[in-house]
Design a protein that fits this description.
The protein is built from eleven helices and ten strands. It is an alpha/beta fold. The strands form two sheets. The chain has a six-stranded mixed beta sheet with strand order 2-1-3-4-5-6, sandwiched between helices. Strands 7-8-10-9 form a four-stranded antiparallel beta sheet, covered by helices on one side. The longest helix is centred in the C-terminal third of the chain and has 26 residues.
């Protein structure tokens, strides 16, 4: 029924897999900081939205976190993107060895991050190294594509562009284009065969799992996504979106980074572009951007907590996959006006 349930299913099935094959000691899960994997206890545990996690910390057990692949703030001076990617990917191996390789069951990550720090794709080579580490230690790889999957990045699955296949792939949101609530978990043959030849059935499930109307809507959407030229057009429009955002904000004094993939982009806002210093949380910049955009007839996903869960502001730009070039120009124009107006409000209040 939702992305939260899709992630819950993946983690539960990973646990069941190891029970089925006689490795019940594998019960630890590793996630990444600056991530979001749903609103249930499993998603809150594996994810790292600190304000949401806070009331439940004492019941979130057996979950550990490593650094995200966040090039804008994580790459060191003199380090190439590839070197940075390998460095942060290798944190997974360090974590597995520290926890005990025979106790870790899964690593969970968003292929392209969604809301927490905004449309951040991994640098080249990062996920290939992650896949190697998971294979080396028998850890199952769960990729969360609730936000970035099903065409939004220009390919059906975002991980296609990273050259890997996970053990589990979750998706929701765009799967039925909003017509019905539905999420899904794809699983590889290894896990499927172990459960079928073992107990014979997955132990989870929800009241409306496999809802006929929701599934019919999802199938109809899949036919459109796989239709002639549809994804090619998403790639073309995504390139236009990236170009227009960079033209409008690439040198903006308060936009530190324009990033993303396809029709999933983000602007990270900063008070000082040179030092990357974010606006103080008390100035509520993202809320002001949202309000100004709404007044102009533009729906935005303006969020706070970009840097550490509390400080930082970003705007996720994710137009409909059927958006035209004219739509993109209108969106970028309205967004620019909204951001400039919000910053003027922040300055006026500080004066």
């Amino acid at each position: 029924n939702s992305g939260s349930e899709a992630v819950e299913t993946a983690v539960m099935m990973a646990r069941q897999y190891f029970v089925e094959i006689g490795q019940p000691q594998r019960k630890k899960v590793i996630g990444r900081r600056a991530s979001f994997h749903g609103g249930g206890l499993t998603g809150l545990g594996v994810g790292y939205q600190l304000m949401r996690r806070a009331p439940f910390e004492d019941v979130l057990a057996n979950v550990f976190h490593i650094s995200p692949c966040y090039e804008y703030r994580g790459k060191q001076e003199g380090e190439t993107a590839e070197e940075y990617g390998l460095r942060v990917a290798n944190e997974l191996e360090t974590a597995i060895l520290g926890l005990g390789p025979d106790t870790v069951m899964a690593f969970v990550a968003e292929t392209v991050t969604g809301t927490t720090n905004g449309a951040t794709p991994a640098v080249p080579g990062y996920f290939k190294r992650i896949r190697e580490i998971c294979d080396k230690y028998g850890v199952l790889l769960v990729l969360d594509e609730i936000f970035c999957g099903l065409g939004r990045t220009g390919t059906l699955h975002a991980c296609e562009q990273d050259g890997i296949a996970p053990d589990f792939l979750t998706f929701a949101k765009g799967v039925a284009a909003g017509y019905q609530p539905i999420g899904a978990t794809m699983v590889n043959t290894k896990v499927y065969d172990a459960i079928v030849s073992g107990s014979g059935t997955y132990k989870g499930g929800y009241t409306y799992s496999g809802h006929a109307v929701a599934c019919a809507a999802a199938i109809a959407v899949q036919h459109i996504l796989r239709g002639p030229g549809f994804l090619d057009n998403v790639k073309k429009t995504g390139n236009l979106l990236s170009n227009r955002l960079n033209e409008r904000f690439g040198q903006h004094e308060h936009v530190g980074n324009v990033r993303g993939r396809g029709m999933l982009m983000t602007l990270e806002l900063v008070e000082d572009r040179n030092t990357k210093t974010p606006f103080a949380a008390s100035r509520a910049l993202s809320a002001k951007i949202y309000q100004n955009a709404q007044a102009r007839g533009l729906i935005t996903h303006a969020l706070s907590g970009t840097v550490d869960g509390y400080v930082g502001d970003h705007v996720v730009v994710c137009p409909p996959l059927i958006a035209t070039g004219d739509n993109i120009d209108t969106i970028v124009g309205l967004l620019g006006d909204s951001i400039d107006a919000a910053i003027q409000e922040v300055r006026a209040k500080a004066a």
